[in-house]
Design brief:
The chain is mainly α. The chain has 19 helices and no strands. It has two domains: 230 residues, no CATH class; 244 residues, no CATH class. The radius of gyration is 26 Å and the shape is globular.
């Protein structure tokens, strides 16, 4: 069997979208133009760096300047061009009315997203393979730490793939051309910032060097990789959800991934504390995890209450298993239950970890004590419940309409803004200085700082959070009952 026939037979086992996208990219003018432009600019930069150092009276390593120049071109290509091409590739399916053909081919949404993402990865690999020559030549010119190359290239590849996933997910959010233009502007701004930040970090590492054995360096790299995988995975799941049919389960994947992010954040907090010390890591990272869970829950608690016809037929017949699956199934009340579970998990981890330290004295870099840390985290969880559960309980989407879900999400955001502004406006009108300067319980940022400093009592916030949760109980009971009454698998 010839090599061409082997390749042809291999295509039968590959993702059809991957094969289609790679063929279109390699035959299209966009990829050819970007690829040729990048190579030419890289050659010009490489020759200029070498000639610029040729007249030096004393020899000095040229490798760092050479690597910085060609690495900048590679970064622009794989972080700038590739994600934007992925965004346009997904948008072309809607603009050219070819998405219906993909659906009729019985391909699942995850297969479509994965095929698009793998196609972007193949295009990025072509850039990496060509730039491998420049990287080797930079090492031969001297002054380049091999660790930077061995660490930098995989990190750059992961960031490129993550940004391509973000671009694909963004592209599924809007199918009209006018809305897509706005999303393209947002994506372009994000890509420009990512390119500039990546080039700056690489230049600093190349010129000064770094020791990967240092905990600070490991913390920085782990932060970058976790952020890349978190954003990339989140938008991949969002894209799969957006491509799915309205009667399908469009929520469980997001809930599972969101809870996974919470667990990864808690594990990272434990690692940071064990390697770098400082009680602040056990407060700051769980706080970010609470914020992430709260932002995701804005969409969960505002979903229509019904399960959906296709979801009902996929439920297991075992009652105990159904009870376990309740928080992960679609529905606004079940979304509220998911948020409560995520916050309880975060608080449970923090109470367990800080309880192991003991409530003795100051263990943080800024004088933060264990009781203050526990009280601060409990306050953050309370505000998370207040600003999501209270509006969703008052404006629940029992009518199963899309406009109702939009109303709930608007009211959640409006409640946060009104909680900040209304007391301050009243304080300004009544000449009440503390309220006018946002020093009130409606401002979670001020309350958090005051709790950390031990200046106020957070119990009123906890009580109001309990009231918001109590308003959700009728919805939660109805949602659990609906799961048990569903028909289940045939």
């Amino acid at each position: 069997m010839s090599a061409l026939s082997k390749v042809a037979s291999l295509e039968e086992y590959l993702n059809p979208v991957l094969v289609k996208e790679v063929r279109q990219a390699l035959r299209g003018k966009q990829f050819k133009g970007a690829f040729g432009f990048t190579i030419v600019i890289s050659l010009i930069v490489a020759i200029w760096v070498v000639l610029n150092n040729a007249d030096s009276s004393a020899w000095q390593p040229v490798g760092p300047d050479f690597l910085t120049g060609v690495w900048s071109c590679l970064t622009i290509a794989v972080i700038g061009f590739i994600p934007m091409a992925a965004f346009n590739a997904m948008g072309a399916e809607f603009e050219e009315n070819t998405y219906d053909m993909l659906v009729l081919s019985h391909m699942r949404p995850r297969h479509i997203m994965l095929g698009k993402l793998l196609a972007a990865g193949v295009q990025a690999m072509l850039y990496f393979s060509v730039f491998g020559f420049f990287v080797v030549f930079a090492f031969l010119l001297g002054g380049v730490d091999l660790t930077i190359v061995l660490v930098g290239l995989p990190v750059l590849a992961i960031v490129s793939l993550a940004l391509s996933s973000v671009a694909l997910g963004l592209s599924t959010l809007a199918r009209k051309r006018t809305a897509r233009v706005g999303l393209m502007v947002v994506l372009a701004a994000a890509l420009v910032g990512s390119v500039m930040g990546t080039i700056a970090m690489q230049a600093a590492a190349t010129q000064t060097g770094f020791d990967i054995a240092l905990p600070e360096v490991q913390a920085g790299l782990s932060s970058l990789l976790i952020a890349a995988l978190a954003f990339g995975g989140l938008f991949f799941v969002i894209g799969v959800s957006r491509l799915a049919h309205e009667e399908e389960n469009r929520s469980t994947g997001l809930r599972l991934f969101g809870f996974t992010l919470v667990l990864v954040g808690l594990g990272w907090a434990e690692w940071m504390y064990s390697h770098l010390g400082g009680l602040e890591f056990l407060v700051a990272v769980p706080t970010m995890a609470i914020i992430v869970a709260t932002v995701l829950s804005i969409f969960f608690v505002s979903e229509r209450e019904g399960l959906g016809r296709r979801v009902e037929t996929t439920l297991p017949n075992n009652k105990a298993l159904r009870l376990f699956l309740v928080p992960w199934l679609p529905g606004g009340a079940r979304g509220a239950l998911w948020l409560v579970g995520a916050n309880v998990t975060i608080l449970g981890f923090v109470f367990w970890r800080l309880g192991a330290l003991g409530a003795l004295g100051s263990t943080g870099l800024s004088g933060l004590t264990v009781p203050e840390a526990l009280e601060a985290l409990t306050t953050v969880v309370s505000y998370s419940l207040i600003y999501t559960l209270l509006p969703s309980a008052l404006f629940s989407n029992r009518s199963r309409e899309l406009k109702r879900s939009t109303l709930v999400r608007i009211m959640i955001l409006a409640s946060f803004v009104l909680g900040l502004l209304v007391p301050s406006i009243v304080g300004f009108l009544l000449d009440w200085s503390t309220l006018a300067y946002f020093q009130h319980y409606g401002n979670p940022f001020w309350v958090f700082i005051q709790v950390v400093d031990g200046d106020i009592n957070a119990k009123p916030v906890w009580l109001f959070a309990g009231f918001a949760l109590a308003l959700q109980l009728p919805r939660i009971v109805r949602s659990v009952t609906e799961v048990f009454r569903a028909s289940g698998r045939v």
